[in-house]
Specification:
single chain; 213 residues; mainly alpha; 68% helix; globular; EC 2.3.1.275
């Protein structure tokens, strides 16, 4: 019963619509009416610029971290013998936050794609893997200025790191890593189409921006 309550709390944390609140509160507009229409860091970078985009990305990442940390409220998971159960529950909490980000109760269930919150999940469970993924993301972003492409490649690097570099023993975590890569690719089909056709928007890395597509 307590697990279900914490999963619901994780969903509420994930539902915090950072991009919507920032765009409305500071810029007087709804980010979902501009660019790709997503309430996430990628669209915030594209429409409002690097400062707003970075802030939204950090907060959305923190939502994943905070959701995972809810597991430590239950004494059962303090026992080292329950490590497998702890990791599985943490993944569940993180995924609940991701669902909240995609379907936020505080913003009429219209959110983003959940990439930053997914990263926060990984950061909380396995920081070194997360840092490696961030390195891949930043490298691709600096070379191409495509946030979507950077997210896709970083997500593909995730299961490669888990399976072959760090050789993660937890089976559920290995499956989760593969599922994340597949999910990110599937949710970025439109971006992939625009990338292939040369129509994907690049993000401004060093200046603010507000455009309407």
């Amino acid at each position: 019963m307590l697990e279900l309550l914490l999963l619901f709390c994780a969903y509420l944390i994930g539902s915090i619509p950072t991009a919507v609140w920032v765009s409305k509160g500071i810029y007087g507009m709804d980010i979902r009416e501009y660019g790709s229409g997503n309430a996430g860091a990628t669209n915030t970078f594209r429409v409002l610029g690097s400062k707003a985009g970075t802030f939204v990305m950090i907060v959305d990442m923190f939502k994943g971290v905070l959701a995972v940390r809810l597991s430590y409220l239950l004494s059962y998971y303090h026992n080292p013998d329950h490590l497998t159960q702890l990791v599985n529950f943490q993944i569940g909490l993180g995924l609940a936050a991701v669902v909240g980000h995609i379907f936020p109760i505080w913003a009429n269930f219209r959110g983003g794609k959940g990439i930053a919150t997914l990263f926060g999940l990984v950061l909380a469970i396995q920081p070194l893997v997360a840092i490696c993924c961030v390195g891949v993301f930043l490298l691709i972003l600096s070379l191409t200025r495509y946030v979507s492409l950077s997210s896709i490649i970083a997500s593909i690097a995730f299961p490669i790191l888990i399976l072959y570099i760090f050789n993660e023993p937890e089976v559920f975590y290995r499956i989760f890593a593969i599922a994340v890569a597949l999910m990110v690719v599937l949710t970025h089909q439109k971006n992939i189409t625009r990338l292939l056709s040369g129509n994907e928007n690049k993000v401004p890395l060093f200046k603010n921006r507000r455009t309407r597509d």
